[in-house]
Amino acid sequence: MSSEAHALQAGGDVPEQNPLVGTLTRVAKYTGVRFVILILTVVVGVYLTILIANMGGYVDSIIRGQIRENIALVIQNDPNFKTLDPSVRAAWIAEQVTLEESRLGLDQPFVIRSFRFLFKAMVLDLGRAQLMTSDEGSREVRLIIQERLGPTLLIMGVANFILFFGSVFAALALSRKYGSFLDRLVIALSPSSSAPSWFYGIFLILIFAAVLRILPFNGMVDSPPPETKLGYTLSVLKHAILPVSAIVIANIFLGIYNWRTFFLVYSSEDYVDMAKAKGLSDRAIERRYILRPTLPTIITNFSLTLIALWTGSIILETVFIWPGLGRTYYTAIGLYDTAVIVGLTIIYAYMLVLTVFLLDFVYALVDPRVKIGAGSS
Q1: Which residue, 101, 283, 309, 343, has most beta carbons within 10 Å?
Q2: CA–CA gap between residue 187 and residue 331 (Å, rounded)
Q3: In terms of CATH architecture, what is 148-334?
Q4: Cα–chain-centroid distance for residue 329?
């Protein structure tokens, strides 16, 4: 017989579970399951990146060919090798090839190296690049990424913050003037966002650099760089105008159109009509009945905007010869430098997982209708 039945026979009450304990148990269970699922997702994504970056091991054959080619060039350019006995020369070539393959880890099967690479990536041991180096000559992937991170954050950060806050506030203003000239103008210009940012970047270079000659063509700073910190800062900001403008022009109208439509949907709810009937001001209605229900979506978009800063823009940075993470991706892919590719991918994956993990708790804080782990009930 259960303890509850004994309690009933004894005339006592059935012991009730503490609501706080039940809530903590539900949250802990949900957090653990969510964390495990996200980590498994990262593991699968990173391992697929390793396979794709190595073309399933085919890159090893390419690197081995490059090793033999480089050693052959050394022999051709050194007249001392021509006097050696062919057998001695062949033995020397074989020894050098073996040493270089051992240094790069090519003497082990790709499957074993791929799992070792995966483990190191998961613990953020980014290792050393095969061919790429930082400006100081280091092959540490951490230093290469750290060196390119600042330039990318400059243009992507400024552009995306302008896009996010400009789109939200402009869309909120347009939602008050539905059907006005500005509203129709934004709708008409929204298809312009179908063209990528580098497309507008080329036209901006032609107009402001080639024709008007008021802004530089490309690069991050003047050559030679200014000696003073103020001069250097102003030079960097001047070079950043065109890439930032290209990103903003390519996305601003579609962003305003999307948020404007989103706000119009919420402004047509019954509780908004009730607030208008009570005589509340437009500002109060927007703050309490439109912005507050959309706060989870706004937070999600802002969080993903912060993560997008890390990726950079491969083609845009190539067009403007901007030394950021986008060009680093492009260079690493061209050189088959798997360590750099995986290093950039794993950091982005961890940032994405951490953001998705924390957003569930943020939703519960800003929206009383959301309860963590209460989906099953």
Answers
A1: 343
A2: 38
A3: Orthogonal Bundle (1.10)
A4: 12
